[in-house]
Predict the structure.
Amino acid sequence: MFWDSDQPYPLAGAGLGYDQILAWLREDDEVRLRNLWDAADDMRRRSVGDDVHFRGLIEISNHCVRRCAYCGLHVENTKIERYRMTADEILACAREAKEYGYGTVVMQSGEDYGITVAWMADVIRRIKSEVGLAVTLSLGERPVEDLAAWKQAGADRYLMRFETSDLKLYDRIHPPLGNRKSDRFALLEELRRLGYEVGSGVMIGIPGQSYDTLVNDLCMFRSMDLDMIGVGPYIPHPDTVLGRDPQPLPPDQQVPNTELMTYKVVALTRLLCPQANIPSTTALATINKANGRELGLCRGANVVMPNLTPVQYRRHYEIYPAKACINETARECRFCLKNRVQSIGRTIGQGPGGRVRS
Ligand code: SAH
């Protein structure tokens, strides 16, 4: 026990320091953890309200030049069939998002230089002018000029997880491209300077991720003042370096990639960053298909990302195996998520649902 159990919440704002975060991550007592869930849910309600924002996810390409040790899309994986959606296909998805009342589309891909700066800028302009939705991009580490051009074309937000704040572990799981050093922290700062709302996050339970590292990741979220924070369990993919040769730390140091650990990190993220938009992720729904999504929303999250990717492409966007919602159509994803949100007494957000600042 790290605090006097007579005290109510050793949880709020500045009171949540390194030692408290670490103790919560190592806490396994269900009764005590209920304090954490309640505090996070209360903070979520007071800071961002009961609305759950829907972000329609379009996985626009699975081509990738990188060799990330965790991700099934890496360049050396010859087992997946590669695809890149056409501009018209993407626009059709965006129109469907509009029809379903989503305020935002998120376009995500591998790091694919077949997505040229001009082509992407044109897609963004068309979505803004023909459909009128907030546009989030998650296209990997592109040159600053590309990011600037897309902002200019009307993109609103950019998601790029830093994956881990342990730079040695990062180098192992995320090798550089040629001689270009991968510095996601610097790139996230550039994105902010360009005027994007900035989202980042980490995977939970990467082999080699220690408790200390995870505490540091959470402290980074707060110090970076992120607008959006996505955290989900690491799910091994057999056709990756990390899937074949995980090299975990000794059990007392290694963070487990469990559902419970994911809820702890979601809840702590909410307490540390009260106003951030935090999704209840597909990776979490993958490891608990029954009610992972709902539990994430009840323990700090306020966003879901229904999939809009056409079904013929969806199974090829295999960043990890057995992804939730792989065979559902966009319409089915919408009904499923709407029902899940309403079943826990929450409301569906209207409009773009950008980051609130008070
Ligand atoms: N190319 C983009 C998008 C990558 S996919 C980019 O690099 O930013 C989006 C996120 O999925 C990644 O940032 C990573 O955190 C997560 N992801 C990838 N492989 C995963 C795995 N095996 N298990 C869990 N999450 C994974």
Observations:
- The radius of gyration is 19 Å.
- The first strand starts at residue 51 and ends at 61.
- The chain has 14 helices and eight strands.
